[in-house]
Amino acid sequence: TGLKYGDVIFDSDIDNWKENDSVFDNRIKGRKQLVFIIEDDQNEKFGYYFNGTITIIDGSFMKAEGSFLFSLKSNGRVNGMYKFEIQSNNAQYACYLCNKSNSYLIAFGGPSWNIRLDTQNYKSSSYAGQYTNSYNYHNTTNAFIPNSMSKQTNFTPKRITVIQMK
Can you tell me whether residue 124 is helix, strand or coil? Predict the structure, then answer.
């Protein structure tokens, strides 16, 4: 990102992320330059950098040039850490934030979501799908979870951490 590590503003190990009671939307609304780190129940680590300000809850996608998906640990599918840049023609689909009454928290990349995080009540319905028309995957397959190349594949988040960069 070119920025320094800032404050942790959401941690699913501490903060409530259940449907109707989640603090997720309130913690990130109005914040900018956020890193979302996801660890799933298979110890995969991946996430998203949103290079903008979270302004809209449950209404439409937010645009953010310079946003990207990343893989930190993929259990051998991707060698080391890797960054997947948003394609400029899809920057208007960078992020979609839901309010606490929805069954999902947030989605990244569109118009077909590349990653969707569901609330704790429905966390096993979270999914990743590697859509090459949205991000530059540099010929990498199954970057986030197994079997996610060009289709939505479910995963179960174990921990979600959101960091505001400085």
Answer: helix
What is residue 132's predicted lDDT score, i.e. its pLDDT? 66
pLDDT at 56: 80
Residue pair 10/47 in contact (Cβ under 8 Å)? The answer is no
Helix (H, G, I), strand (E, B) or coil at 32: strand
The residues with which 42 forms a beta bridge, in sequence order, are none
Under a CB-based contact definition with an 8 Å cutoff, are residues 47 and 37 in contact? yes
What's the rounded mean pLDDT across residues 86-97? Answer: 87
Closest CA to 161 of 54, 2, 80, 46: 46
DSSP states of 76-114 as a string?
Answer: TSSSS-EEEEBPGGGGGGSEEE--TTSSEEEEESSSS-S
